[in-house]
Amino acid sequence: MKLTFRLTKMFVFLLIISSMNSFSATKTEVKELICEYHINPVGIDIQKPRLSWQIASSEENLLQTAYEINVTDQTAKGKLIWTSGKVNSAQSVNVPYQGPALKSMQRVYWQVRVWDNKGKATAWSMSSFWEMGLLEPESWKASWISIQSESTEKGSKPAQYFRKEFTAGKAIKSARVYVTSLGLYQLFLNGQKVSPDLFTPGWTSYNKRLQYQTYDVTSMIQPKNSIGAILGDGWYRGNIGWVSQNGYYGSKLALLAQLQINYTDGTSEMIGTDQSWKVTNNGPITESDIYNGENYDARKEMSDWSKTGFDDNQWKKVAVIDQSKKMLIAPQGVSVKAIEEIKPIKLITTPKGETVFDMGQNMVGWVRLKVQGNKGDQITLKFAEVLDKAGNFYTDNLRSAKCTDVYILKGSGIEIFEPHFTFHGFRFVKIEGLASQASLDQITGVVIHSDMKTTGTFACSDPLINQLQHNIQWGQKGNFLDVPTDCPQRDERLGWMGDAQVFSVTAAFNFNVAPFYTKWTKDIAADQLPNGSVPDVIPDVLKGGGGKTAWADACIIIPWTTYLIYGDQRILEVQYPSMKAWVEYMKTRAGEDNLWTGDWHYGDWLAFATTQSDYPGATTEKDLIATAYYSYSSGLLAKIAGIIGRGEDAKKYAQLSENIKKAFIHEFVTPAGRLVSHTQTAYSLALAFNLLPEDLIPKAAEYLANDVKKMGHLTTGFVGTPLLCKTLAAHGYQDLAFMLLNRKEYPSWLYPVTQGATTIWERWDGQKPDGSFQDVGMNSFNHYAYGAIGEWLYRYVAGLDIDPEVPGYKHILLAPHSGGGLTNAGVEFTSLYGKVKSAWKLDGNDFVYEVTVPANTTATVTLIGAKAEQLTVNSQPLPASMKESLKQTDTGISVNLGSGNYQFRYPKK
Ligand code: BGC
Known about the structure:
10-stranded mixed β-sheet; binds beta-D-glucopyranose
C-alpha cells in the first residue's frame, strides 16, 4: 500500500491516461431481461407481468434516470403494441407492463433502453419475450380423462399410461402443449419426454389451485405423431400427511392435455384429451408413492408405447370425466428438476453384512441403478440418512415411510432404472438382490429440487463454518421441492409454516426464491380458514388445524422477506387480505387486553432440554411467544399497509402493535427488565421485536448475555435460534455471538458438523457423541430450521445487509464484522441489479474490505474502528466524492458509495 505513495509522476500520468482510455471505451448496456423472475416465460397468466433488467457498465456511480420499454406482437409481425415512452424513473426491477390486455396464447417481445446519470442512453437491449397461457376456462377445449376402472383397494396403485396417435399434415409454424393432471404426470411426444420438469403439475392446494404447464413442442411434431402420458399417485392420492393418509385430495387420477398446432398456412389444429385416447394400468410402474417408493417390473415394459405404430389393442378406452377447469392456473414458481448428479464415495459391508453405498452427501432425489442379471431377479434399494452406532443401515427415523425402490429385471443386458414418482432423502443406499458383487459405478445419485438460481455464496477462513454453510445450502436444496418442506425423508415432507418463516431470509440469500414464494404464499391464502386462522402446513393436508404463533405468521413474514430481498411490492398487495385476516384472527384470540394467552402453540419447538430437575430446560412460556409475535406481525402489517398505500390500516395496525407492546411489558416484563421466562428465546424475542421500554433494553440484553455465559451455549429452539446471535451482536455482545457460532460441542451449530453432518439436523443432538440417536419419533437429519443462522453469517459476519427503507438492494447496507478468530469472510450475492460483493480479510494489522456495488444501486459502508485519515480506497486517500458523505463516530465511519468495485483498507487495532 505504501508503494502507492511513492508513485513516480510518470506512473501517475500513465494511470490517468489509461483511465482516460477506459473512459473512452466505456460501455453501458442493458442485459439479463426477465419477466416475472423468469427468462422468456412461456404460458403465464399474469395480465400485467413485471419486467426487470440489469445494467452492465464499466462506469462507476452509474444510475438509471429513465427507461423506455417497447413491446411488439409477434403475430402482428412485430407491430408495436405498447411503448412505455421515456419514463423518468430509476426503477429497473419489476416494472409492470401497462399495455393492452393480452390474449390466451399470445406471445409478445420486449426490449428496453435506459438513460443514465451521465446523460447517455444505451442501445436497445436484445429482445426477450413472454407468452400467455390459456387464460380462461373456455380456452380449454380438451376434456379431463381417466381410467374406467381400477382396484378400489386403499394403497398405491399401478401408474396409468395414456396414449393417442395423430397426424399433422402441413408445415408447422408453432406447437404448444398445455397439460395438467390429478396426480403426477410425465408427458411424452413421439417417445421423448416433453420436458425435464419433474413432479408436474407441482403441489398446490389442488382443490382450489391446480397448475398446468405449457411446453413449446414445435420441434417435436412430425407428420405422424404419438402423444402419451404416465400418471402416478403423487401428493394427490398417494400417502401424505403424518398419519399416512391415502387419497387426501381424491381417489381418481386424471389427465388434461391440449396440443395446439399452428401451421405456416395460417390454419391451426387442436389435439386434446378426449374419449379417443386409450389407457392401461398394466405397465411396469406397479406402485409409486412419495413416502414408500416405487416398484418397477421391467418385464412389463411396453417398449415404444409412446411412439407411433405401438399396438394398443390391449389398452382400454378412457372415461371422460366431469372435472372443473376453473381452478387451473399457470405456474408462477420454478419447476422441480434433476439438478446435479453425484457418485457414491464408498461401498460398505456393514457388520450385519448389508451392502451399502455411501453417497458422501445427505441428498434428496433417487439413484439411477445400472444392473445386469436374469429375468425376474429383484433388486431392492433402501434409503437411509445415517448408519447406526455399530455401522449398520438405520431407518427407524423414517417412521412409517418405506422409502424403498424395487426393480425387477427383464434380463436383457445392462438395464438402467430410475423411479418416476417418488423421492428419497438419503446418504446411504442399501442394495439387495444383486446376482453379482456390487460395484461403485452401479449407482448414481440424482439430486432433485426446485430449479432456483443460486444467488449467494458465503465463505470464511474456518472450514467448519464453511461446512455449516454447505449444510445449510444442502438443507435448502433438499427441502425446496416445489413447497418448502420440513424434511424430505420420513412420512411427513410437509410445508410446515414455522420452519419456512424462520429460514426465509437465509433461503433468499442462498437462492432466488422470489418465484418459489410467490407460488407458495398463494396457497397460504387459498388454504386459510374463513376466520383468518392459518393452517400449520401449506398445502394443508392436516385438515385445517392451525392458528399457531410463529407458524401461521409465515403468511406475513414470507411476503415481507420477498419484499425486502427483491423489492417485490406486488406480493404484499396480493397477500394483503390474507395477512390482514391473520392479524384479525389473532385479535379475536387475544381480546381486549391485547395479550394472546391460553391457546396451544408449538412454542420454542425443540429448545434445549435436560433431564435435570433443577434445570429441566429452556422453556419459554407460549403466551409470551404468542403475544410477542402478535405485536411483531401487527407491526409488519402496519408497515406493509403503508407501503401499498393503505394509510388507514397503517395507522390502525401500528397502534395495535404498540398496544400489544404495552400489554406485553405489563404482563411479561418486571420493572427491572427481567422477563417472566428467563430464557434466551424470551429475551431475543423481546429485544428483536422491540417489545421493551427504552430504559430496560440494556438490562434485558445483559440478562440474555448472562444466560449465554452461564450456560456456555445456546438453549433456543425454532423460535429463538434465528434471533439469538443477531440480538446479542446488536446489543454489544458480539463476542458471545461468535462464541456460540464457534462452539463445537452439543448444543451448537458446529456439533453436527464435527459429527460429519452434510445437512442441518432437526435436533441439536440428532446423533449423540456415543453414536446413539435422539427419539425415533422425530429425528430428521435434513431439517433446515436451525440453518437460519445463515442469515447472520451473510448479514452480520460478511456484512451484506438489507435496507428496509430502500429494499431489494437498491440501497445496500455494507457493514462487515470481524471476530471469533476469523481472518476473512465474504459473500457474493446476485441481486436483481447484479452482483454485490462484501468480503473482508485481516492483512497483518490492516482490515481490508472489498466491495462490489452494481449499477443503478447505491450503498452505505460502515467500517468499524476506521478513522478517515487512515482509510484508503483502492490504495488512494479517501476521494472527495466520498468525503462529502463521510460520517465519523466513536465506533467507526460510514460513507456512501455509487456503483463500482472498491477496496478499503485501514489499520485495525
Ligand atoms: C415438523 C416440524 C414442525 C413441527 C411442528 C414436526 O413434525 O417436522 O419441523 O414445525 O412438527 O412443531
